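Fold sample X.
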Amino acid sequence: MSMNIKSLIDHENGLIDRRIFWDNAIYQQELKQIFARCWHFVAHESQVKSFGDFITTYIGEDAVIVARAKDKSINVMLNSCPHRGNKVCFAGEGKIRSFVCNYHGWAFGLDGKLNGMPENQLYDNTEGFDKSDWGLHKARVETYKGLVFATFDEEAPSLGDYLGDFRWYMDAILDIDDKGTEFIPGTTRSLLKCNWKYPADNFVGDIYHALWTHLGAAESTLKSSGGIHVSNEDSYQSSVNGHGWEFSLANNFGNAATMGDKEIVKYLRSREEKISQRLGSVRAKMIGSVASGAIFPNFAFLPGYLTFRTFLPKGPMETELHSWTLVPSEASDEIKDRWRLGAMRTFSPSGILEMDDGENWEHATIGNSGYVTRNQKLCYQMNPTKGESIPIDLPGIVTKGQLNDANQRLFFKRYAEFMDAKSWADIPLAKPQF
């Protein structure tokens, strides 16, 4: 029987029940209600550019393969043989012509179709047996400006409706010129002993932690410019369908500067006028600013660093982090490599900033499981600019000041809507306005 999650989430008063961060019954409900239902980022098109290119990842705990077929289509399918369930691919990425199960040798095409199996005449007398019924289970696939998304829910709305006006914000990184973006080759994978919602919560709107958690580490790269600068002056939080972006328009190269490479900041400054002509002056300031963003439920990114990541659940108290560095395709090889090194220096398993975050998320998860502790509420009540007007026209639910819990409250409101919904008819989607 499903638990009523709305009773655990008081988003209006900023009170969150700690059970959602450790309870296994709630976690199992998440796999069904959220991960089997939402659109999920699975790859960048640059990772599967040519026929035969593939990567493997997860949607929830379901292992999936993302592969480019001969007809140039991108297919996303379960990485599980329909014969006995074994994985048909154990590599993280590569180039291949078919996937063959180690167990009995069933072979599948890059489109997921069952092409054959050893001694296939053994099925000749099986009434109704049809190979076309036994391909790898496929997901729906759509793309947005290089990003590949998939869902296993046939009733889900289009990706465009799911993202809504959040696309307007995403373009500040994905659409700065005609050549688009690409991922630098390779995926960084690491394990964290934390609930997946802690990093999602952090990226959707928590810049507050940077003033304390990252204060020491950022000294090494920002000391000459006076350290971390975050304020509610000329900064905002925006939320669309549970997706969120907090950002500053005053400190428009702050994140990029934290990587400690002046050449990247120079590159972004050199692009600012052209981006402004293409997207307007507001979004021209967003690509490198002090900011973070997340697409519901578990796909996140940091402008400036251009690190993109998924928080893949491995139980209520463990998360597998996959991360990549995105770069403008038109950038020189030298600038792309500087971005790779900058992202590794800051937001990688050995980076000066990511280690601090991981330690906090792990201890917060473990701390919530104690019997007395689990019965105490968590405080999401920061609301310093309540009622203040927004001086610029921005899409979504916009709150003045990036130091705020507004986006997190809306993230958990969305979480409760998904967890309690019987169908997509119970999940509201904001009508695009931009």
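Fold sample Y, listed below.
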Amino acid sequence: MGMVITAAATVLPDPSAPASVVDLAGRAARGALARARVPASSIGTLINVGVYREHNTFEPAMAALIQKEVGINLDYIADPEPAAGFSFDLMNGACGVLNAVQVGQALLDTGSTERLLITAADVHPGGDARLDADYPYADLAGALLLERSADPCAGFGPVRHYTADRPTDVEGYLDTGTMGRHGRTTITVRREPGHAERLGERAARAAADYAQEFGIDLDRTLVIGPSTAVDDAGGRGEPHTAAPVLGYLRALEDVRSDACDQFLFVSVGAGPSAACALYRPEGR
């Protein structure tokens, strides 16, 4: 049995208040659970892959705070079934969602959990990405609810990772030499000239290599790439770790014919690295 996406959701922040990763990821997770009509107590594992957080928070793990925000198996006595909830962070930048998908496949295959929730949320450390013209990413969260399918032809295929033999051309860091007293609310994202073109080239190369390895007919495949903007959804900037979730929801809206019956997730991030995974929805 394959692992399928039962529900997905994205969330933008309330523009009247500073954005919070825990709040955004929690709202996205609750949105996915509501669409699937399943309780939070049915989630066995939560994996959070977001990178940028308010106040540059590093500890504790965001996943634990999101688990508490959503209310996933917080009381072992009150909610003894199906099992105690487990959560952890898995950070690999823009490729984080596909890393979590790969881990989720192992957890579901071994029966370690019945349902898996992936959250991906990034916010500017100052709480509002709109106020930093040099910060390229949107304050945005997404969530995927995953579980096994009885359809052996549905679900995710293998996740493959690709690296390039050159230095990374994008990096985010806190510049401790210049931050002064604003270290909790500032962040630097450095991109070398030509980054967007190289990102597109790496995505195309990874998709072609994946298609060749697994014999995928790209004429029947809708590619969910790495650079979908959120501007038309009311946000500013590019989606980062939540990009695959946003791309997936938009792909569902766009596919109205029988021409494409499968999706190819392609993520590209720092490293440079790329990740790909084929996904075939149930019933197609």
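Sample Y note: The two ends are 15 Å apart (CA to CA).
Also: The chain has five helices and eleven strands.
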